[in-house]
């Protein structure tokens, strides 16, 4: 079985990080990721099942990991060696012997670890699980960061039965592989009360930014969305997914001032967007987001940030809330979401909550989010795949995914 | 020898290359054989004694009006309003004609014992003039006296306390004017008519109005139906202003209009070649052209801009008329046409225009891309009577560097318009509907307009609408030698050579197109038969 494996080799992480800061494209080649061939893992018990990926997406956090640029905060929460890949549509064989296509909800929460639910899992907030270091499997916040399970960048990995969701026959693999990142975007959008705001900005139009735009538009047809996009493909996609206006990054703060009819002095402005979704996660984007947001407004960190240098004086002075948004779990069914949940046949539990993932599955096909998958690669071609994903916008790509069934010779069919 | 009239040259093999303005520089272009070049009339002789002519005009008014002195009484309140820095272009050599007139007017006000006087720069939504610009327009003596007496003001279209709603025209157009002027016993308006669009009822109805009032004629529909806005009788822009003028008159506001016309002696002696036909260039002209154009090649744009913006025109006064607005304006138009009109037979497939460094809205500033659009497709395209020089579906080729440069002090809302509006749409109707009101009511732009020297937030929209008739009429616009990315932002095509531009244009209008070049400035108005 072929798999792309990240090993705990500090020198390789360091080399990848250094090379990734240069024009060189060899950072992947000399980094911690290698293509291995080994026996598939056997399910430890009947709660686990073998899954054969059809498509597995390359996420921004994956790129940061293999290029050695992600925050070292995650080191103690990860078990090596691991196989990345948490955006997965896969084939499984169910107990009744029937084959099924499933998408993976990758959080390795209490249920996957054979543990009683922690305080967070009890209320459906599996993304905040307290047990990520404990239980029957090794530490890891998600499939794709845990050595016990394997991950989607392989021909086979292990999935806990609580992690898999069957998908309708009509749903394409490309739509399905977008379910996981779209669930992240829905969760980001649901971190705010959409019924109380009028104007939002989505800073960054990579996959997360575009999906955030799509999520916001699905959840709130009347909200005004200003998307910030750098590249032509991104601009067109942002518009198609429901942005009212698409602007260049260089004019973001000017647009914020103008659209909110603010006064301005230096980086201070009297008003701004009600909420800004930072889908980039860099110091500059966080700084821009804080400046562009109205006093008392919110900045949602939707893109994975790392160590950042940000002047927090504007945040303090203008009483901005900086809110993290990681993965998803359960959400309260607010008045604003009732109609959408009903039309999407998403179940609401007794406490008035629904699973984010359920809504993502219901909407992905409807919104044709598979159109965002612009390139697929075999595992053999991982260097090219990751290099493309790392420069997706500039090279006209959006979501890049592995198709582990694919052979190198068939790469020509990429687009 | 009397000045020669305008002239239409047919290019043949012996015709020397044609001079094109190209921002703060020039291009010499060899036009295809058979092309036409329209040259402006030579400058008419200026009045030898302007002060006497002014006195004569004030004492012998035109139309149904008494002489100025007869209208004046002690204890009355008088607003002396004057055209702003957007006229003339370039600024004229001192003394400015406004200075000459206002000195004479103030003299008469003093003789009549009128003490309640205010000088008002009729800015509409233009930027406030700087102190040096005011001093140049009014002359040092008037400027300093008026400033120290605190009677020198500039119209503030956002000063709600100092605006007066006059009423609505029979078409429902709201008229809101400068309150001080509207409640004065007499408005004396001092105009400079550089092009036929200026003056008449537009002076007060536009120059002293607010956005509430201006939006009724400064809009896409009006501009598309102004064919052209340089032709008062076929201009919906003017029809609206004339309706407003009637309402103003009917409401009891008294206006004593003083209009002036200038000849086209636009450039001082070192640039004399700009006013000559190329085949008549003498040794001195050729040497001047070479010296200027070669040195400009090594001059950074900001420095070249400074050189050109310092040019002061040796204009001569060709007419001054005073009295009743409409009668005065008829005389004015006669004078303007006498100086600028050139008879042209038939339209053309392709019209080429060289855009100079200056337009009405970038005096002492940068000709930004929005103003390039306005100057080319607004002003020059509309310099016609009868029919546009270029046929329906034809192409205009504009020569200009079209750099993405803006003056953040004068044109802050232009920057946002370029960055945030044009990427969304270049369709004037879409832009008007989606963005205009937000820009017009933006408190930051209002603050900069009132307290800085910024054009009003809505002004870039008007500049875009100024080209609406052309956009509606043309099959394509090409910018020759312009920054390609900026040109694309405007929705136009770019070409680096005239041959390329003509090739692109041919793909729109067909093979073997007719080509006409508008050899201006100096200004000319084509009377197309």
CATH architecture of the largest domain in chain B: Alpha-Beta Complex
Q: Assign the structural class of chain B, choosing from mainly alpha, mainly beta, alpha/beta, alpha+beta, or little secondary structure.
A: alpha/beta
CATH superfamily of the largest domain in chain A: Medium-chain alcohol dehydrogenases, catalytic domain
Judging from the principal axes of the Cα atoms, what is the shape of chain B? Answer: globular
Chain pair with largest interface: A-B, 15 and 13 residues
CATH superfamily of the largest domain in chain B: LarA, C-terminal domain
Structural class by secondary-structure content of chain A = alpha/beta
Main β-sheet of chain B, in a few words? 7 strands, mixed
Q: What would CATH call the architecture of the largest domain in chain A?
A: Alpha-Beta Complex
Tally of helical segments of chain B: 21
Oligomeric form of this entry? heterodimer
Q: Could you say how many structural domains of chain B there are in total?
A: 2
Strand fraction of chain A: 15-25%
- On the 0-100 scale, what is the average pLDDT of chain A? 93
Q: Pick out the low-confidence regions of chain A.
A: none
Mean pLDDT over the full residue set of chain B: 96
Helix content of chain A: 25-40%
- CATH topology category name of the largest domain in chain B: 2-enoyl-CoA Hydratase, Chain A, domain 1
Q: Give the class-level CATH name of the largest domain in chain A.
A: Alpha Beta
Q: Give the % helix of chain B.
A: 25-40%
């Amino acid at each position: 079985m072929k798999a792309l494996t990240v090993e705990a080799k500090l020198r390789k992480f360091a080399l990848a990080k250094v090379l990734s800061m240069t024009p060189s494209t060899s950072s992947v080649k000399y980094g911690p990721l290698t293509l291995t061939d080994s026996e598939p893992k056997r399910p430890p018990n009947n709660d686990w099942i073998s899954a054969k990926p059809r498509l597995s997406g390359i996420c921004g956090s994956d790129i940061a990991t293999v290029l050695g640029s992600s925050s070292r905060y995650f080191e103690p929460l990860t078990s090596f060696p691991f196989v990345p890949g948490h955006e997965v549509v896969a084939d499984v064989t169910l107990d009744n012997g029937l084959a099924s296509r499933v998408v993976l909800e990758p959080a390795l929460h209490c249920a996957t670890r054979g543990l009683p639910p922690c305080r967070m899992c009890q209320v459906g907030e599996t993304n905040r699980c307290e047990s990520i270091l404990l239980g029957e499997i090794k530490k890891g916040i998600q499939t794709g960061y845990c050595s016990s399970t394997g991950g989607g960048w392989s021909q086979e990995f292990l999935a806990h039965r609580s992690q898999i969701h069957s998908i309708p026959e009509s749903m394409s693999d490309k739509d399905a592989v977008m379910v996981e990142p779209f669930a992240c975007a829905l969760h980001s959008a649901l971190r705010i009360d959409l019924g109380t705001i009028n104007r939002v900005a989505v800073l960054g139009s990579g996959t997360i930014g575009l999906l955030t735009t799509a999520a916001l538009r699905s959840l709130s047809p009347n909200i005004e969305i200003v998307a910030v996009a750098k590249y032509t493909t991104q601009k067109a996609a942002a518009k198609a997914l429901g942005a009212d206006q698409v602007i260049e990054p260089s004019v973001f703060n000017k647009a914020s001032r103008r659209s909110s009819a603010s006064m301005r002095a230096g980086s201070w402005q009297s008003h701004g967007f009600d909420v800004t979704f930072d889908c980039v996660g860099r110091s500059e984007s966080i700084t821009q987001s804080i400046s562009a947001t109205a006093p008392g407004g919110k900045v949602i960190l939707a893109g994975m940030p790392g160590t950042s240098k940000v002047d927090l004086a504007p945040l303090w002075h203008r009483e901005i809330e900086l809110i993290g948004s990681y993965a998803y779990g359960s959400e309260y069914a607010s008045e604003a979401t009732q109609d959408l949940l009903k039309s999407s046949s998403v179940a609401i539990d007794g406490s008035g909550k629904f699973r984010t993932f359920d809504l993502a599955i219901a909407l992905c096909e409807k919104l044709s989010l598979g159109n965002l998958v612009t390139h697929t690669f075999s595992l053999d071609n991982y260097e090219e795949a990751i290099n493309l994903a790392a420069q997706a916008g500039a090279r006209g790509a959006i979501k890049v995914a592995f198709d582990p069934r694919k052979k190198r010779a068939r790469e020509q069919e990429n687009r | 020898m009397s000045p020669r009239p305008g002239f239409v040259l047919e290019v043949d093999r012996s015709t020397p290359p044609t001079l094109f303005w190209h921002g703060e520089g020039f291009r010499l272009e060899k036009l295809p054989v058979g092309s036409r070049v329209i040259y402006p009339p030579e400058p008419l002789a200026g009045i030898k004694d302007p002060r006497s002519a002014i006195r004569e005009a004030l004492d012998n008014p035109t139309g149904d009006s008494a002489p100025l002195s007869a209208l004046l009484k002690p204890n009355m309140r008088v607003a002396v309003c004057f055209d702003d820095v957007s006229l003339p272009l370039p600024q004229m050599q001192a003394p400015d004609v406004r200075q000459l007139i206002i000195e004479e007017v103030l003299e008469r006000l003093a003789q009549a014992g009128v003490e309640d006087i205010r000088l008002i720069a009729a800015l509409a939504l233009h930027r406030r003039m700087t102190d040096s610009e005011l001093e140049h327009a009014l002359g040092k003596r008037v400027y300093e006296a008026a400033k120290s007496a605190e009677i020198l003001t500039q119209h503030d279209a956002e000063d709600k306390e100092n605006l007066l709603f006059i009423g609505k025209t029979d078409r429902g157009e709201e008229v809101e004017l400068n309150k001080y002027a509207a409640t004065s016993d007499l408005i004396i308006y001092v105009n400079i008519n550089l092009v036929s669009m200026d003056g008449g009822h537009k002076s007060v109805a536009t120059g002293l109005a607010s956005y509430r009032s201006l939006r009724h004629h400064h809009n896409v529909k009006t501009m598309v139906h102004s064919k052209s806005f340089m032709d008062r009788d076929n201009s919906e822009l003017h029809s609206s202003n004339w309706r407003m003028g009637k309402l103003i008159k009917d409401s009891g506001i008294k206006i004593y209009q003083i209009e002036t016309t200038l000849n086209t002696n636009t450039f001082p002696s070192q640039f004399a070649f700009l006013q000559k036909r190329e085949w008549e260039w003498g040794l001195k002209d050729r040497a001047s052209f070479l010296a200027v154009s070669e040195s400009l090649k090594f001059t950074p744009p900001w420095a070249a801009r400074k050189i050109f913006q310092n040019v002061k025109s040796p204009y001569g006064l060709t007419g001054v008329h005073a009295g009743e607005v409409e009668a005065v304006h008829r005389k004015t138009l006669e004078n303007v046409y006498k100086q600028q009109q050139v008879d042209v037979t038939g339209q053309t497939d392709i019209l080429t225009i060289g855009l100079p460094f200056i337009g009405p809205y970038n005096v002492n500033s940068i000709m930004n891309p929005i103003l390039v659009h306005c100057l080319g497709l607004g002003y020059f395209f509309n310099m016609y009577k009868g029919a546009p020089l270029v046929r329906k579906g034809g192409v205009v080729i504009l020569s200009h560097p079209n750099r993405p440069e803006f003056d953040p002090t004068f044109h802050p809302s232009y920057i946002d318009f370029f960055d945030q509006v044009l990427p969304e749409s270049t369709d004037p109707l879409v832009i008007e509907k989606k963005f205009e009101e937000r820009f017009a009511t933006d408190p930051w732009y209002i603050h900069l307009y009132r307290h800085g020297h910024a054009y009003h937030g809505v002004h870039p929209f008007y500049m875009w609408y100024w080209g609406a008739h052309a956009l509606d009429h043309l099959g394509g616009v090409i910018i020759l030698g312009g920054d390609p990315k900026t040109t694309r932002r405007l929705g136009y095509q770019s070409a680096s050579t005239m041959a390329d531009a003509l090739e692109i244009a041919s793909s729109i209008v067909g093979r073997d197109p007719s080509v006409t070049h508008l050899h201006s400035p100096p200004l000319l108005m084509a009377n197309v038969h």
